[in-house]
TrEMBL record:
Domain TRAPPC10/Trs130 C-terminal per the UniProt entry, residue ranges: 1037-1259
Name listed for the protein in its UniProt record: Trafficking protein particle complex 10
Taxonomic lineage: Eukaryota, Metazoa, Chordata, Craniata, Vertebrata
The keyword Signal belongs to this UniProt entry's keyword annotation: yes
Compartment list: Golgi apparatus
């Protein structure tokens, strides 16, 4: 912003100057010098001052600093020579940046007589003072033209003269303003050019002068180590720069200047403390006589600034003024929460700087200054933020509230306001001195009822007023500390000390309790110890016996206290226990055991924690006493939950154990966080549910957490029974279980102790609580975590059969281990197992034989051998058992053999009905894959002496081979091929590979084409065998054959071979038709050529008459209406190799006569696509089965000759497709009874293709292009 002033020269002259804004108030309108020019400038002053800052300009600074966009404001003042800067003047606020000379002269004579001389004097004055920033504005108005119409010169001539006289090298220093009072395009254009020129010249001048000012300021700062340098003088210079940046609304740059001043002063104070002092610090070391606090309600504290300029400001005044300016700029920048942070740093640093400079300060003065400053900052923040912002950012003001409360408490101690007897005379005098140092209240806060000045005076006026203000501060702190619970509770202990000194232990304990929770959550062990001592004192004064005893237990085990202090609190407990035993009817006092003793581990004997009924189980507890002296316990009891549910072998301790039979418990530091207070890990227990019918079958499994009350709880959710530091009495719930493991007269020595218990009754026991009794005091551990349990069980016998190999193979003798877990049952002499014999799996034993067996003891880890006898009969195999005690294991082995079922006929135990068996038989054609039987399940029933029910035993045997068969044809000759695949993991040796028929009376001639009589078939490999089939008499309707072989493992030296049989059946094995195909080249060609049509001639010949193969109605759909004289066939030509293109019709129907050796020929056009030896296309023949009387219309009359019949064949599109015939027919039968024909494929071998696998030579096409060549 710049200011415009003017001075009188001549009537037509009007010199002006531009200065920075807001340095002096805007002047009144210029005095009346020239009526026309005064009226002109008066009308232009307001729009010029308003429109100049309207458009932004880009400000580029030196030293590579980033450009910024600013708005230039200016004030216009009348030109006076005393406004021009003198040499050595560093004032930047009153510096005239641009000088303007206004003239509306249009007469040449006036210009020569007066104006030119006045401009020369003005210009000379500027040059004399070194000011080169000026501009001349020529205002041309219509009124001036009318008055000097006779002597007027053209405007260009007058402007050119001014430029020639004053602006030879700076033509832009002369600007013409055309009719500024008129609203025309020329006037607006001229006005815009004037504003642009003023912004440009003003910014250029401002940048140059600002750069010179910064250089001068930098030079002044570099002289700071020279004698006579003054920080106050430098402070005023750099603040000038900050004011300029603030006027330009560059608040960040202005804040940087104050931060640099702050850092510079702090560095000098630190150097002074290190012994390197500066002379100018002397005034700042003077005694502090005023401690009025910060004053943030003024933008600029002119009184403090004047004191700094004079060098009379104290340290607190300098710091207060500097922070006031920083606070104003931070609020302008929208960073009010940074003000709170800087305020805390300021107050702490001021206290330290006063100590470093050794400034004499009245005791309590700094507390008054800090208290008032904190409240002033908080008031300033509340004034610039709304309630939502304050609520969301309360954590930023927590430090100020806490600091203010702390200083108010210090003043209360100092002035005797926090004591039981009230303030004394000395403390009253101190209060008067402190109030005197506050001085008079500032005018800005006189009318405010909640000003820091009034609050402090009221708080120090009386004990009641102090307590009221202090309670208000305490009430404000938790609200502001809502987002920081740790900081909120950190100050609770200090607040508790206040009420403790005032003789109010009830209030003190409330604050101490909150502080203790905070210290426990963070693990501050020393603070926990000191707070507990204070709480014990409060509880003792209030007569809270149970709370006092619980706190005494914690303090007696606290390692931060001395041995004498710990013994003192331990004696307090024992004295109360001994005193209460003498009082009859005295109720028990329940305390938590966490701090009295720690449960280290639980050890079981035996280590499995599982014993059967009648055996003894010993439970040994290892306790670590935290008391400093030996404590005699009248009784130590473990409360257990008893359940009759049998645990079996699953009743083991399921926790992680360092060694078998030992459960460890996590340790904790009793002085900080007892183990039961800490966040416990989840105690997970596996739960399994077995099937009632078969204990080996697992029905469900899961995981259960037994200590969810510890894992899921929140630390600050409220008091719990595991927290002995709570205010209310600890109501410990003692679990009086069905079973109690007790021991009496136990002395716990300091350190580790061992106590043993025993139990023999059957059931499942879970350790729940531990209770130690000392007089009428019972120390209770409410929860034992992780969960510990043991089982005394009664187990039923369990019989199981386990194979000795991974898989059991059918057809070979296999051995299995029989395991009998006796459980609670004792096997007596004469007890036996009776196994029911089944045909599919006989037991391979002699009629009467003895086998060895082993009796194991899992608990003791020993075994012994014995003999058992086996007696077999036709229906039952009886195994006599040796005498075996309870809870032992009896093991022996059996050898058994599973019979391999026949291949095609599924066994009875497969669960197939008759229809399924019939379909399986019908599907036994050469395309049938491997045999369907891959394994065989065998169920064996066992009668046991301990149960009236039969025990089922299930075994699964895997068949080692898979077999398949295939019918091969060569014309009329037939061959049978059998493939035998080894699907097991064992290599076998095969012998006696034979194929026989099963019909009564031999009708076949089977000639083996296998060269080897003995074969080795490895795992996952196959063996193929082929036989030539001939007929002795008439052809049979079907072939029923059995493939048999003997096999034995190849690894055996003296193998014992076992039979393998595969039975299968073949139907419709005769060859009905033969088909020959020939590919004929085009006419006149010897060979076929690619791209040229050629013919495919197919010849279909019937080999047998219909009476033998087709005379009878077929069960698949033939009807009586179907004529037996002719047979309709359908052919289809396809090419799967992509070498041929079928041209025209690719399929059709033919009618075969019923005579033997009847022949039919069909020709199809083909085009080879490539050259070379190409395979013949595929020709498929189907049996066409019409289902209606009108189906003969699909084929031409049989009386027609053969060529006509071939030409008039039905197109393939009129014949339903193979996959859709049945669906279409079925749908139409439902709708209207219309029957559709269908296609029936021949079985393999019924149609023999003589051209299968043939190839034909195809030559490339002839290239008939003419190639012209010219030779020169």
């Amino acid at each position: 912003m710049c200011c415009l002033s003017h001075c009188y020269s001549f009537l037509s002259l009007y010199p002006l100057s531009l200065l920075p804004p807001a340095t002096v108030p805007p002047p009144p309108p210029p005095p009346l010098i020239s009526p026309s020019l005064t009226a002109l400038f008066s009308s232009l002053y307001t729009p010029l001052a308003q429109q100049l800052p309207r458009e932004p300009v880009e400000w580029r600074r030196s030293y590579g600093r980033a450009p910024k966009t600013i708005h230039l404001e200016a004030n216009f003042i009348q030109f006076k020579e005393e406004f021009l800067p003198k040499e050595g003047n560093k004032a930047l606020l009153t510096f005239p940046f641009l000088h303007i000379y206004w003239t509306d002269c249009c007469d040449t004579g006036v210009y020569k007589a007066h104006v030119r001389d006045d401009i020369m004097r003005w210009h000379g004055t500027l040059r004399l003072h070194g000011s080169a920033d000026w501009v001349i504005i020529v205002a041309e108005t219509s009124n001036a033209k009318k008055k000097s119409k006779t002597n007027i010169l053209p405007r260009s001539t007058l402007v050119d003269r001014i430029r020639n006289d004053f602006c030879n090298k700076q033509n832009d220093r002369c600007v013409v303003l055309l009719d500024p009072l008129k609203d025309s395009s020329r006037s607006r254009e001229s006005w815009g050019a004037l504003l642009l020129k003023l912004r440009t010249l003003l910014l250029k001048s401002f940048t140059q002068n600002l750069g010179r000012f910064e250089d001068d300021m930098r030079k002044l700062r570099e002289k700071r180590n020279l004698p006579g340098w003054s920080f106050c003088e430098y402070f005023m210079v750099q603040e000038e720069l900050a004011f300029v940046f603030e006027m330009l609304q560059q608040f960040e740059d202005a804040l940087v200047q104050y931060d640099e001043l702050d850092a510079l002063f702090t560095q000098y104070v630190l150097n002074y403390g290190a012994g390197d002092g500066a002379n100018w610090l002397g005034p700042f070391c003077s005694p502090v006589n005023s401690w009025t606090g910060l004053l943030l309600r003024r933008p600029i504290d002119m009184e403090s600034r004047a004191a700094i300029r004079r060098g009379e400001a104290s340290l607190l005044e300098l710091r207060s003024y500097l922070f006031c300016r920083q606070c104003t700029l931070l609020i302008f920048l929208g960073r009010p929460w940074e003000v709170t942070q800087r305020a805390l740093e300021l107050m702490h640093s001021c206290v330290q700087e006063l100590c470093l400079l050794e400034v004499p300060v009245v005791e309590g003065a700094l507390d008054c200054w800090v208290f008032m400053s904190c409240l002033e900052v908080l008031h300033r923040i509340e004034g610039c933020c709304d309630l939502a912002q304050l609520e969301a950012n309360r954590s930023h003001t927590v430090g100020l509230w806490a600091y203010a409360t702390d200083k108010l408490k210090s003043l209360g101690y100092l002035c005797g306001l926090v004591s039981e007897n009230g303030p004394q005379s000395e403390e009253l005098n101190r209060t008067v001195d402190l109030l005197a140092g506050l001085g008079d209240e500032k005018p800005e806060t006189v009318h405010s009822l909640q000003s820091p000045y009034k609050k402090l005076k009221q708080a120090l006026s009386s004990v009641e007023a102090f307590e009221r203000h202090y309670l208000v501060s305490l009430a404000m702190k938790p609200g502001f500390l809502r987002g920081d619970s740790l900081s909120a509770r950190f100050y609770r202990r200090r607040d508790g000390n206040v009420f403790q000194r005032k003789g109010d232990p009830g209030r003190a304990e409330v604050f101490l309790q909150d502080a203790l929770r905070s210290y426990l959550s963070e693990g501050w062990s020393l603070l926990v110890t000191h707070t507990r001592k204070q709480m014990a004192e409060c509880q003792k004064r209030m007569g809270r016996t149970e709370d006092y005893l619980q706190t005494s237990v914690l303090l007696a085990s606290d390692a931060n206290l001395t041995i004498e202090e710990r013994k003192h609190f331990c004696q307090e407990i024992l004295i109360f226990a001994n005193r209460s035993t003498d009082i009859k009817g005295k109720h028990n006092t329940y305390l938590l055991m966490n701090a009295f003793a720690q449960l280290m581990q639980v050890q079981f004997r035996p280590s499995t924690a599982v014993v059967h009924s009648g055996a003894a189980l010993q439970v040994e507890l290892h306790l670590r006493s935290l008391m400093p002296v030996a404590v005699h316990l009248e009784q130590l009891a473990v409360s257990v939950h008893f359940s009759l549910k049998q645990g079996g072998t699953d009743g083991k301790a399921r926790e992680t154990q360092s060694r078998p039979g030992t459960v460890l418990f996590p340790l904790g530091n009793s002085s900080v966080i007892p183990p039961s207070w800490a966040v416990a890990g989840p105690s997970l227990v596996e739960v399994q549910d077995h099937s009632p019918s078969d204990p080996r079958i697992l029905s469900s499994a899961g995981v259960v957490c037994n200590n969810t009350h510890l894992v899921m709880r929140h630390n600050d959710s409220g008091p719990s029974t595991d927290m002995p530091s709570r205010v209310s009495p600890v109501h410990v719930a003692v679990d009086n279980g069905v079973q109690m493991l007790k021991t009496r007269d136990v002395t716990l020595l300091p350190g580790n102790n061992s106590i043993a218990f025993s139990s023999q009754e059957p059931g499942t026991y879970k350790l729940c609580q531990l209770c130690a009794t000392v007089g009428h005091i019972q120390l209770v551990l409410p929860h034992i975590s992780p969960l510990v349990q043991y089982d005394v069980y009664s187990q039923d016998p369990l019989l199981s059969v386990e194979p000795l190999t991974d898989t059991l193979l059918a057809g070979l003798p296999q051995r299995a281990k029989v395991r009998l877990e006796t459980g609670h049952y004792t096997v007596k002499k004469g007890d036996a197992l009776q196994l029911s014999n089944i045909d599919t799996m006989p037991i391979l034993t002699a009629p009467s034989s003895c086998f060895s067996a082993a009796i194991l003891d899992s608990t003791e880890g020993w075994s012994r051998d014995c003999l058992l006898s086996i007696h077999s009969s036709e229906k039952v195999t009886r195994i006599s058992l040796p005498p075996t005690p309870s809870h032992h294991v009896l093991e022996f082995q059996l050898e058994m053999l599973c019979v391999i079922p026949l291949g095609c006929d599924p066994p009875e135990d497969l669960g197939l009905n008759e229809g399924a068996r019939h379909r399986l038989r019908r599907s036994s054609h050469p395309n049938e894959p491997m045999a369907i039987i891959t394994q065989r399940a065998v169920e064996m029933s066992v009668d046991c002496p301990w149960s009236i029910y039969t025990t089922p035993i299930f075994l699964t045997f895997h068949i080692p081979f898979k077999a398949r068969h295939q019918l091969l044809s060569a014309g009329k000759r037939k061959y049978i091929q059998v493939c035998l695949q080894n699907v097991s993991g064992v290599n076998f040796r095969l012998t006696d590979l034979r194929l026989t028929e099963t019909q009564q009376g031999p009708s076949l001639k089977l000639q083996s084409l296998n060269a080897k009589t003995q074969q080795l078939v490895c795992s996952q490999q196959s063996v193929y065998c082929v036989w030539d089939v001939g007929w002795k008499e008439d052809k049979p309707a079907c072939l029923q054959c059995v493939f048999s072989a003997n096999f034995a493992p190849a690894s055996e030296k003296d193998p014992a071979f076992h039979p393998f049989n595969y039975e299968f059946q073949l139907e419709r094995v005769m060859t009905l038709y033969t088909m020959r195909a020939e590919i004929l080249p085009a006419a006149g060609e010897q060979h076929c050529r690619s791209g040229v049509l050629c013919g495919l001639e197919m010849s279909i010949t019937r080999l047998v008459v219909p009476d033998d193969d087709e005379g009878k109605a077929d069960e698949e759909g033939q009807t009586e209406e179907f004529p037996t004289t002719n047979t309709k066939l359908m052919y289809k030509v396809t090419d799967s190799s992509g070498s041929w293109a079928v041209c025209g019709r690719s399929s059709g129907l033919v009618s075969m006569p019923a005579d033997a050796n009847a022949n039919h020929r069909v020709q199809v056009e083909l085009m080879p696509l490539f050259s070379g030896h190409l395979p013949f296309p595929n020709v498929n023949v189907f049996q066409y089965l019409p289902n209606s009387a009108s189906s003969d219309s699909c084929v031409e009359n049989n009386a027609l000759p053969l060529p006509v019949l071939l030409d008039d064949q039905v197109d393939a599109a009129s014949v339903p497709r193979l996959g859709s015939v049945r669906r279409t027919a079925t749908g139409e039968q439902r709708s209207g009874g219309l029957h559709m024909p269908r296609l029936e494929p021949f079985r393999p071998g019924q149609v023999f293709n003589h051209s299968q696998g043939r190839q034909v030579l195809v030559l490339p096409s002839v290239d008939q292009h003419v190639l012209e060549m010219n030779a020169t």
